[in-house]
Amino acid sequence: MTEADVPKGLSAKLDKKRKRQAEESTKQDKPEAAPAVASAAGGDESNKKKCKKNKNKKQPEQDATTQERKGGVDESIGKMDGRLLADYFAQRAQKLDKELSAVELGDISVPDSAFLDTTSFSDSRTLDKLPDFLKAFSPKGADLSKASEKKGTPHTLVVSAAALRAADVVRALRGFQTKEAIVGKLFAKHIKLEEAKQFLERARTGIGAGTPTRISDLIECGSLKVDEIERIVIDGSHIDQKQRGIFDMKETHFPLLKLLTRPELRDRYGASKKKVQILVF
Predict the structure, then answer these.
(1) By C-alpha distance, which of 86, 102, 103, 144 is closest to 270?
(2) What predicted TM-score, i.e. pTM, was given to this entire model?
(3) d(C-alpha 101, C-alpha 93), whole Å
(4) How far apart are CA 264 and CA 281, in angstroms?
(5) Beta 205-210 vs 277-280: how paired, if at all?
(6) Which of 31, 40, 216, 231 sits 20 to 30 Å CA-CA off 49?
(7) Which parts of the chain are beta strand (E)?
(8) pLDDT tens digit string along 123-175?
(9) What would the pLDDT profile of 191-206 be if each residue is shown by its tens digit?
């Protein structure tokens, strides 16, 4: 029997039955999609957990950095020997100037032999401990309160990131000052270059404290003589209120590297005579 031969009433019933079956089939299909939704939800939960784990991993690293930079002191600096410091200086230069070529980096790289290992100094590297630090790493019998007969010829330079900090260093080292050996102010704060030149030309100074640029300027003009320099102390552990140290800023790190790699100093690193050593405080 064909559909044409089916009575109209029966045909209507068949249509209704087909619609019912179609609806039931649709309802049965919907629950099958639910696991996919649940799976997607599960994926979101998994991603959230992964994000939390990653955040938790980063947190200890940040906490460790904060722990090493507290109380105005970066404690990690004092744990580096000469080899690590030489690498660190170069790495900081590359980070601060992405366009620095290999040749340019080589020109301002400080050799391992330049550094005196000061990792044995167990006290905190706060400013009040700087005099003890200098005594600890000076040869036995060396008198830090003495100065050369030649004017403007110190045996020690202390290099800081900023003039205000250098002024604090001068005050901290007053214990080494005598009438015949002045602690020189080699920074620009309230002191013009001409005034600094005049001071060095008339005064005997055993220790000079200042900033990289001003010290370089005074060497360049001949007022600050480095013939008898024995040690260059870098005020490296100090960090300011913005958590920045002398190695963290382009405007201080590069002038420092240029100072340390001046030919009259670089040629004497590791030398048997007139040796110059770099100490990082």
Answers:
(1) 86
(2) 0.76
(3) 11
(4) 23
(5) unpaired
(6) 31
(7) 69-70, 73-74, 156-159, 182-186, 205-210, 231-234, 277-280
(8) 999 999 999 999 999 987 678 999 999 999 999 999 999 999 999 999 999 99
(9) 999 999 999 999 999 9
